[in-house]
Specification:
Layout lengths: L3 E7 L5 E6 L8 H21 L10 E3 L4 E6 L5 E6 L6 H17 L13 H19 L2
Antiparallel strand pairs: 1-2, 1-5, 3-4, 4-5
Length: 141
């Protein structure tokens, strides 16, 4: 049983800058992952405008029959979202931890250009450890 299916990081303009697939079905092709990221960015922006409550930050959780989509938006507009099994808990904490890894290993990397695809080995290593830790805690419940 896999708790986390995939992770997406979208820049403030709606461009996909990071995608990692953790599911057993195999990796989605590049065009599909770009299309999905763009669609999520648009839905998130529309939800902010449609909300009857002033200051809404957008969709944080989308629940479907076969998956949950959890989203965290940073103050700079970068969105982190995880697709997980329905009912998976503590995804908000995982997303905040991933954001911390992003700030520590990507943004502090002098060779990283803002808003560009993420290619950082230390980020990948620490992200894999964080996801593995989440899987172990999920399976231990």
């Amino acid at each position: 049983m896999e708790a986390i299916y995939s992770l997406y990081i979208i820049n403030k303009s709606g461009g996909l800058i990071f995608y990692k697939d953790y599911g057993l079905q195999g990796r989605m092709d590049t065009n599909d992952s770009l299309r999905l990221a763009s669609l999520w960015h648009s839905m998130h922006a529309i939800s902010q405008q449609l909300s009857p409550i002033q200051g809404c930050s957008g969709i944080e959780l989308l629940e479907a029959d076969t998956f949950d989509l959890h989203c965290f938006q940073s103050l700079t507009g970068t969105k982190f979202f995880v697709v997980s099994e329905p009912g998976t808990q503590n995804m908000e904490n995982l997303l905040k931890h991933i954001y911390e890894l992003y700030t520590d290993y990507v943004l502090k990397n002098p060779f990283y250009e803002m808003e560009m695809p993420i290619r950082c080995e230390l980020f990948d290593i620490n992200l894999a450890q964080a996801v593995q830790k989440e899987r172990v805690s999920y399976l231990g419940r």
